[in-house]
Amino acid sequence: MGSSRCELSRVIWRSNENMFGSGKGTLVLELVDDVAWASAARHSDGHAVTVSVEDMTFFAPVWAGDIVTAYAQVEGTGRTSMEIGVHVSARRCHGPSEPEPVAEAHLVFVAVDDDGAPRPVRPVHPETDAEYARHRAVAIRRAHRRALASALAEVALPTPR
Questions:
Q1: For residue range 137-160, what is the model confidence (pLDDT) as tens digits?
Q2: Distance (Å, rounded) from C-alpha 34 to C-alpha 23?
Q3: Residue 52 and residue 148: Cα distance in Å, rounded?
Q4: Maximum CA pair distance of the chain?
Q5: How many Cα neighbours within 13 Å face the side chain of 160?
Q6: Global pTM value
Q7: What does the alpha-carbon distance between residue 32 and residue 104 come to, in Å, rounded to a whole number?
Q8: How far apart are CA 2 and CA 79, in angstroms?
Q9: Per-residue model confidence as pLDDT tens digits over 16-74
Q10: Cβ–Cβ < 8 Å for 1, 126
């Protein structure tokens, strides 16, 4: 799992503020997708595409002057898919020097070939207790997605226009 780890950082500028003065959430979302793609590409030795953002949780706002860093790694794999966990922290412009957790996300990517067709990926092998816990959490989220899809299929939701 460790070989897929990636990190990306960016500075939040005043031009990145929303109407409430904090950094736009879309900036964090973009950073999360970018670092998750880098992790997926590293693990799959090639291109990968975002299939879903399973969850995105914001713990705290980011502010102008903060250095925001997103850390990603592949936490589980299917035949062609990779589940990537992303943790985002901010080193505050003013305040303590320790980074503060600001967001967390889980995304699913699929490795694709030059024609855009899915291609197989190698499995991940947890090495630490934390990686084993993240790997087990992937199985729980996968089972939850299947149960949700099954329950929603019974509702027969109309197709949006």
A1: 999 999 999 999 899 888 877 888
A2: 17
A3: 15
A4: 52
A5: 0
A6: 0.90
A7: 9
A8: 19
A9: 999 998 999 999 999 999 999 999 999 999 999 999 999 999 999 999 999 999 999 99
A10: yes
With contact defined as beta carbons under 8 Å apart, do 6 and 33 qualify?
no
Exposure string for 123-135, b = 16+ CB within 10 A, e = fewer: ebebeeeebeebb
In this structure, how many other beta carbons lie within 10 angstroms of the beta carbon of residue 21?
10
The string of DSSP codes covering 76-135 is: EE-SSEEEEEEEEEEE-SSS-SS-EEEEEEEEEEEEB-TTS-B---PPP---SHHHHHHH
Identity at 90, one-letter amino acid code:
A
From CA 1, how far away is CA 87, in angstroms rounded? 15
